[in-house]
Amino acid sequence: MKIEINQEGSIVVLALIGDFDASAVQTVHEQIQTYVDDSAAVLIVDLSQVSFMDSSAIGVLVRLFRAKQEPKNAFHLAGATGQPADLLELLQISRFIPHHADLNQAMAAAKSTADA
Q1: Are 23 and 52 within 8 A, CB to CB?
Q2: Phi-psi region of 108 (alpha: psi -120 to 50; beta: other; left: phi over 0)
């Protein structure tokens, strides 16, 4: 798994590339934790280039979401398609973690959070 990190003001986009499975969990968690600890940052995890996700990946996303409760709506998912989107839907993750169809929608939502 590769992670590309881009920051625009207080919005941090973490683009995950490849399979997000048990072998990638530790790397993802370690690289994202710095931004979770930054109380001013609004995080977007871009899943548009993730081709496979398993339950350990869902566990990381849920833990990161719970750790990033302030400010409200400071953690977003974007762009999941195929198997990752099916898994998120099956587990009804979007009921508590905002999930956007693409990065542009997530950026718009994150900007409204960052400006609040």
Answers
A1: no
A2: alpha
Tell me if 76 sits within 8 A of 93, measured CB to CB.
no
Is the distance from CB of 53 to CB of 28 less than 8 angstroms?
no
Q: What is the pLDDT of residue 56?
A: 94
pLDDT at position 105 over 60? yes
Structure tokens at 70: 């302030």
CA distance linking residue 96 with residue 5, whole number of Å: 24
- This prediction has a pTM of 0.91
**116 has pLDDT over 70:** no
Closest of 72, 65, 110 to residue 88, by C-alpha? 65
- Helix, strand, coil: what percent of the chain each, to 5? 45, 30, 25
